[in-house]
Specification:
Blueprint (H helix, E strand, L loop, with lengths): L6 E5 L4 H13 L2 E8 L6 H13 L4 H6 E8 L1 H5 L26 H15 L4 E3 L15 H15 L4 E3 L7 H23 L11 E2 L2 E2 L5 H14 L4
Parallel strand pairs: 1-2, 1-4, 2-3, 4-5
Antiparallel strand pairs: 6-7
Helix pairs in contact: 1-7, 2-7, 5-6, 7-8
The structure holds zinc ion (ZN).
Zinc ion binds next to α8.
Length: 236
């Protein structure tokens, strides 16, 4: 079965990257389902953005409305219990001695992708799409292409069924990710992502900037603002 006839499951957090991945999957596959995770992160607001984004994205292109299928939310409270980070505790975001921001939840993407693969298996889905990226990232080792490829092998072996992990943003800058959104869904998609997706580590939604909502100070906001300005300035 070709990808044009297949179903994909998109890791969908409600952020810029995963929304762009959702559009990429809607462009490429016959049917698309979404999965989000709840694990006690303090920016639960990001999960609240998911419904608005799903409602909005089916209006961007008429053919997408027919393709967007079920959404799934999995609770993984254990992840918070084993993580002592700024995402799950009320502490300031800082860089650790290991060069990683303390927002890092060790192995988080491995856990997400493994749960996604288990759900995909149950639903007969082969293709999983995630927004992992090596280019403009904070050094998370579970976003590396090598990590994803190794996990794809492990999942396919461990489930005795081919699982394909797609990471369309792996080699894109944040500006190029905005450009991809434009290529897929024109201004309608760019405006939807800018206004409704959420990236800020602090979970702030109050302040409106030209690149969207967020505190404007945390590493995620800085990355997003930098990417937006490179995009509108033609620096993609
Ligand atoms: Zn922020």
């Amino acid at each position: 079965m070709s990808e044009r006839d297949a179903t994909a499951l998109v890791l969908f957090s409600g952020g810029q990257d995963s929304t762009t991945c959702l559009a990429w999957a809607l462009d490429r596959f016959a049917r698309v389902e979404t999965i989000g995770f709840s694990y006690g992160q303090r920016h639960a607001i990001e999960l609240d953005c998911r419904a608005r984004l799903r409602e909005g994205i089916v209006k961007v292109r008429a053919d997408w409305a027919d393709k967007l299928g079920d959404e799934h939310t999995l609770d993984i409270p254990t992840l918070a219990a084993i993580s002592e980070t700024a995402l799950t505790r009320d502490v300031a975001i800082a860089m650790g001695d290991d060069g990683l921001p303390n927002t890092f939840v060790p192995g988080r993407n491995l856990v997400f992708l493994t749960f996604a693969a288990a759900l995909a298996y149950r639903r007969g889905i082969r293709h999983i799409v995630g927004g992992m990226c090596e280019t403009d990232y904070s050094g998370y080792p579970d976003c590396r292409d090598e990590t994803i490829k190794a996990l794809q092998n492990a999942l396919s072996l461990g489930m005795a069924r081919p699982i394909e992990l797609h990471t369309p943003l792996m080699w894109l800058t944040k500006a190029a990710t905005w450009q991809l959104a434009h290529d897929l869904g024109d201004r309608g998609l760019v405006d939807l992502i800018r206004d409704q997706s959420h990236t800020c580590y602090l979970g702030e939604r109050g302040a409106r900037h030209d690149w969207g909502y967020g505190c404007g100070q945390c590493p995620a906001c800085e990355l997003r603002a930098h990417g937006w300005h490179a995009y509108v300035g033609g620096g993609a």
